[in-house]
Amino acid sequence: MPMPDGGYRLDVRASIKTNDGEFIFVEYNGVVVASKEVNDRYLKSDVVTAKEQYFFSAPTFTTESNNYDWLNKVQVVGKMVDVSTKGVKYDLFIVR
């Protein structure tokens, strides 16, 4: 969702199927701030890096899987590594 200053508020929900067939629901909010020039590059499918854009998220996970039950009990902060129109790569950190 665009903000009046040109930044964005994230509101994301997704289902993940793991390599071992388990399902994890992830939802997160966050903030993205970049210059007009960087936003224009992104819209042209260029890769944008964390050095060029402020992009942080706060994911939470929900699963019924016994293998991944520990995800239900942690808070994570995500820092964007790079982003393009093909997807986002994050470094994720458990807050302790």
How are the secondary structure elements laid out?
Layout: E1 8-17, E2 23-33, H1 36-43, E3 48-49, E4 54-62, E5 76-84, E6 87-94
Antiparallel strand pairs: 1-2, 2-4, 3-5, 4-5, 5-6
Describe the protein's architecture and organization:
- There is one protein chain.
- The chain has 96 residues and is mainly β.
- The protein has one helix at residues 36-43, and strands at residues 8-17, 23-33, 48-49, 54-62, 76-84, 87-94.
- 8% of the residues lie in helices and 51% in strands.
- The longest helix is centred in the middle third of the chain and has 8 residues, at 36-43.
- The chain is elongated, with a radius of gyration of 15 Å.
- The relative contact order is 0.20.
Q: Mean pLDDT across all residues, rounded? A: 93
Count of helix runs: 1
Radius of gyration computed on alpha carbons: 15 Å
H/E element order: EEHEEEE
Task: Give the low-pLDDT segments.
Answer: none
Helical fraction equals under 10%
**Total domains, how many?**
1
The percentage of residues in β strands lies in: over 45%
Summary, kept brief:
With 96 residues, the protein is mostly beta strands.
What distinguishing features does this structure have?
single chain, 96 residues, mainly beta, Porin, 6-stranded antiparallel beta sheet, 1 helix, 8% helix
